[in-house]
TrEMBL record:
EC numbers on record: 4.1.1.17
Domain of life: Bacteria
N6-(pyridoxal phosphate)lysine: residues carrying this PTM: K51
Active site: C323
Cross-referenced CDD domains: PLPDE_III_ODC
Classification of source organism: Bacteria, Bacillati, Bacillota, Negativicutes, Selenomonadales
Pathway where this protein functions: Amine and polyamine biosynthesis; putrescine biosynthesis via L-ornithine pathway; putrescine from L-ornithine: step 1/1
UniProt protein name: ornithine decarboxylase
UniProt organism field: Selenomonas ruminantium
Example of a GO MF term: ornithine decarboxylase activity
Catalyses which reaction(s): L-ornithine + H(+) = putrescine + CO2
The UniProt record lists the keyword Lyase: yes
Residue ranges of every copy of the Orn/DAP/Arg decarboxylase 2 N-terminal domain listed in the record: 27-261
Keywords: Decarboxylase, Lyase, Pyridoxal phosphate
One GO biological process term: putrescine biosynthetic process from arginine, via ornithine
Length: 393
């Protein structure tokens, strides 16, 4: 798959209409990523982890494609409800639930929950009696970018006792869930977790609990991310094969977030200041750590930077606009000489970027523009058609 990337011409014309910084999202790319997963991992239905990117147009697109949604709070449920998504299409997958979230779940008919501790059982049973629950187990994966199994996940040996206690409280013990960690590069981590889950399913059956659902979480890497040497189709197909072997009659779900949108959004930002510190030029951009580059801090991510200036490249430093000295985005980046007003493009900005941006120092949040709504999209389609016509001659 080819990542979404604006051309220099498209950046220029968009920046003539929209003040920087702004994000440009490609719904076509989101749909391509969704269909790729459905094609290579057909056994797993999709609960899109909307925390990665809750842009309304993306949510509406995915809902129309048949996706369900992983929600973590009342706010996310309310957003989906406003878009016409029924609660039956949601899973409240935050293992720790607050009162507001539980009230929203009851109001919007969200009846599928995950949990990993006895303290959650009474809360769920009182808020939504008879709800379907999956116990989240801890799994290990040293090849994930972000480990989620220190804070979340019950020890495997406690899982069935938790489901039994939930059942005794009037809840419906539905199944098992796990999450191997974010940006996982290991098929083995999923395969090992599936083996653990299979053993729990068998033990539950022996105890008189018939489990029907397995949620394998998210963690799938951003497709074709810069520097990623991984056959994602082969990875998904290997996991799908293991699911077929171990869980032929089980409903299986996955919760992709980063995978779905990571490569579907670009950031257009401007150089607003230049300075020289030591041997390197510094370029200050109008977006930074407290904005869409928040993933540098929170998500351990490096976003591909593209400069359009001409001339020899030299090691350069890029910083954000805030008054905080930590607001440095790139060091020793090989860039041509830039001047104030030059536009810079950043790709792979679709996940865990704007969603964790702040108004620190009073800077405005970068808006998201839908590429398919812009004349540049129509022009690109026309150019593609012309290229195809010439190739066919």
């Amino acid at each position: 798959m080819k990542n979404f990337r604006l051309t220099e011409k498209e950046v220029k014309t968009l920046a003539e209409r929209f003040p920087t910084p702004f994000l440009v999202a490609s719904l076509d790319k989101v749909e391509e990523n969704y269909q790729f997963m459905r094609r290579h991992l057909p056994r797993a239905g999709v609960f899109y982890a909307m925390k990665a990117n809750p842009t309304p147009e993306i949510l509406s697109l995915l809902a129309g494609l048949g996706s369900h949604f992983d929600v973590a709070s009342a706010g996310e449920m309310e957003m989906l409800h406003a878009l016409g998504v029924d609660g039956s299409q949601m899973i409240y997958a935050n293992p720790v639930k607050d009162e507001r979230g539980l009230k929203a779940a009851a109001e919007y008919n969200v009846r599928r929950f995950t949990f990993d501790d006895p303290s959650e059982i009474d809360k769920m049973a009182k808020a939504v009696p008879g709800a379907d629950v999956l116990v989240r187990i801890a799994v290990r994966n040293n090849k994930a970018l972000v480990d989620l199994n220190t804070k979340f996940g019950a020890p495997v040996e406690e899982a069935l006792d938790l489901l039994k206690a939930a059942q005794e409280a009037g809840l419906h013990a539905m199944g098992i869930c796990f999450h191997v960690g974010s940006q996982s590069l290991s098929t083995a981590a999923y395969e090992e977790a599936l083996l653990v889950a299979r053993k729990l399913f068998d033990e539950a059956e022996a105890m008189g609990m018939h489990l029907t659902d397995l949620d394998i979480g998210g963690g799938f890497p951003v497709p074709d991310a810069k520097g990623l040497n991984l056959d994602l189709a082969a990875m998904m197909e290997a996991i799908n094969k293991q699911i077929d072997r171990l869980f032929p009659d089980t409903a299986v779900w996955t919760e992709p977030g980063r995978y779905m949108c990571g490569t579907a959004v670009n950031l257009v930002t401007s150089v607003i200041g230049t300075k020289t510190r030591g041997p390197q030029p510094w370029y200050i951009l109008d977006e930074g750590i407290y904005g869409c580059f928040s993933g540098i801090m929170y998500d351990h991510w490096t976003y591909p930077l593209h400069c359009f200036g001409k001339g020899a490249k030299k090691p350069s430093t890029f910083g954000g606009p805030s008054c905080d000295g930590i607001d440095v985005l790139y060091r020793d980046f090989m860039a041509p000489e830039l001047k104030i007003g030059d536009k810079v493009l950043v790709t792979e900005m679709g996940s865990y970027t704007s969603v964790s941006a702040t108004r620190f120092n009073g800077f405005y949040l970068a808006p998201t523009i839908i590429f398919e709504d812009q004349p540049e999209y129509a022009a690109r389609l026309t150019e593609d058609d012309e290229v195809k016509s010439k190739a066919a001659v």
